[in-house]
Design a protein that fits this description.
The chain has four helices and two strands, in the order ααααββ. The chain has about 130 residues and is mainly alpha-helical. The longest helix is centred in the first third of the chain and has 33 residues. It is elongated, with a radius of gyration of 19 Å. It starts with 11 loop residues before the first helix and ends with a strand.
Length: about 130
């Protein structure tokens, strides 16, 4: 068995980080959309005392919080930031307006990482390699 022409992927670390960053970005987007839906439903049904609507709003807020925390953890970890910075970002997901600023910063750095790894990011669908010109 001749193994002389076996090569290894030298970009494996950055490609794995790009995939984690893309997953984190998608989760951050889900958190943002779920939070907006929950707020809109809460405002629209303000005068209704329907427990099902209240339960739906709580479920959307829990979904937004969970996906925001895990998405920010994945994105910050993929960017190889220090543990205390990652922890601060995850805890920052509790503060409403600070959360938006942190998510935007994570999105900018994550998209840059994804592009450096040679991928094209899309919110819908998997990562795709960019065409080499």
């Amino acid at each position: 068995m001749d193994l002389s022409n076996v090569t290894f992927n030298k970009n494996q670390k950055i490609e794995a980080a790009a995939k984690d960053a893309a997953t984190g970005l998608k989760l951050l987007t889900l958190a943002f959309v779920a939070s907006i839906f929950a707020t809109v439903i809460q405002i629209a049904a303000e005068n209704l005392q329907n427990p099902i609507i209240n339960l739906a709003v709580v479920a959307l807020y829990v979904l937004a919080f969970g996906s925001g925390v895990y998405g920010s953890y994945l994105a910050a970890n993929a960017l190889d930031w220090a543990g205390y910075i990652t922890g601060a970002i995850v805890l920052g997901a509790l503060v409403p307006y600070l959360k938006l600023i942190l998510f935007i910063v994570l999105a900018v750095f994550s998209i840059d990482l994804i592009r450096r790894a040679g991928y094209k990011f899309s919110f819908l669908g998997p990562l795709r390699k960019r065409a080499v010109v």
